[in-house]
Each structure stands twice: as C-alpha cells, then as structure tokens.
Sequence to fold (326 residues):
Amino acid sequence: MTFYKGGRPVVAVLYREALPPRLDEVRELAEVRLTKADRLPEALAGADVLYQWHSFSPALRENWAAASTLKWVHVSAAGVSELLFEDLINSNVLYTNSRGVLSRAIAEFALGFVLDSAKDAHGSFRLQQGRRWQHRVTRKIQGQRALVVGTGSIGRETAYLFHGVGLRVSGAGRSSRPGGAYFEEIHSSKDLAQVVQDFDYVVLAAPLTEHTKGLVDADVLSAMKPTAHLINVGRGELVQTDALVDALCSGTIAGAALDVVHPEPLPVEHPLWSMENVILTPHMSGDTEDYLDDLGKLFVENLGRFSRGEPLQNVVDKQLGFVPVP
Fold:
C-alpha cells in the first residue's frame, strides 16, 4: 500500500520544551516546522505529517480544522487512548505510535517488581533505615505462576524475561487462544475473575481502551490469592483504584507494585502512599537513559518509509486504539 508520492514532505513537529533528538536526520528527509501547541494551526497549514513529540498534548484535537492536508500522525508514546478522537478516528489519516521502543525497559521493571516483592527489598530498606538487623525468609520465584494481562509487545517481552527466571507464565488478551514460546496459554481478559486465582503475580501490561478501562475491579481482586501481588506497568485506569485500596487494606491480596495509578499524579493525601505492602513509582518504567534517542530513531525510520511510499511501522488500528498483534 502506498501512503505518499513525490516531493519532500512537510513535517510539523509539536514539542513542549526540549526538541526531539535526530532533528538533523528529519531535516534531510523533509521540510520541518517546529511548533508549540499555541502555534500549531499555522504549522499544520499544508503539512503532510504531524510528529507529536509532546506526547499527550490535546492540541491536534483542538485544532483539527487546520489539519486538512495531514496524511500521517506519529506520537512518541505507546499508549494513545487519550489522543484519539472521533474526527481523527473517522479520517483517512494514518496514525502510528512508538510501540516496542520501551517494551524491554518496561518488562525489566515488571521483573524488578516481582523480585522486590519476593525478596522483600522494600522491607529490607525500611529495616535498614531503622538500623534493625532482622533476619527473615523470602520467597523463591522459580515455579511460581504469573498472568500477564496484555499480550502485545510489552506483554510478550515481559513473558520472555519471566520465563528466563523460572516463572510459569500465562497471558490474557482480547480472546482466549493457544499460548506460544513463553505463554503457556492465553485467556480472554473478560474471564479474569475466573482465572486469577491460579496465579501468584498478576501483571497489567494492556493498552487502555473502552474494553480494558476498570478491568481489574473488586470481583477480580477478590478472586486473587491472598498471597498474590498485582503489578501495573500498563495504565492506571486499568484498575479501579478504590477497589484496590480496599483489597490491600483487608488482606484480600498481599501487595501491589504500581508504576501507574489513577489519578496521576497521585494526590499527596491518597492512602496508597503510606501502605507498607505497596511499591509506587511515578510512571517511569520505560524511561531509560537512552530512550529519547530510541524514540527519535523510530520516527526517522518511519519518515524514510513514508517518503518512499512504503508501509509504515506501528500503524494503530484507530477503532481498537492500539497496534494489533499479528
């Protein structure tokens, strides 16, 4: 399928503060217009491409009338549910995301959360701060079972790392189906409440869509083992926060490790901050030292494809809200 024919494309680059890396490479392939949100309509006039480096800006939605020549939008994030809107969904504009760039880093974070929970690193730090030498026993993760909810790029990378340390891994996705190299089996995410009781770790790595919002509710949490841990490296709204707080307070589940929460940022008075069975990090699981350059590299590669009329990588199904897994 040909997306573009002829000439140097015009690329509007939407940024907030810092400019994206590899701009010189972008300029070799296209005419570049740098813009902040308040000047986006001018930059979009006659533009072929919007490079949304300011990942979660609503500026395109607010200025859609100025986007009449757009053929392609690329966003430097994997999750795009907050960015899609009806006019864009119903248009012929191609939409790509940065799926895969951060997957290994996020999977490493999920594995770190498992190890933190099993080896009680959190508890050791608290004892150290109190200058207390207190021997304990910890859990061995080899042979324990993990359910990874979300079988896309992040979920598969997570399953790969989990498998490498001896965890038995199953998945949950849009539909139940046979497993693969690292998933023993894949359940339908609609059936979570019927299957979570078999797992020691439930890891959320799914995109946020109308079908996954609030997926982990009181019913799912109450069905989990009382010794189980919930890990969320996906989106905060996958979990009903109040139900999670209740489950943690009551001992329905043993603990949670959360890189994402709802709302974000978490209000300072929120009970999750002070719970000893909770690990919180501020939505940083994919942010490694070199991740910005990796994001820029993906756009340059895709811009080359666009200029040559070749199929793009990471094309989002705008109706589903994510890049479908083959």
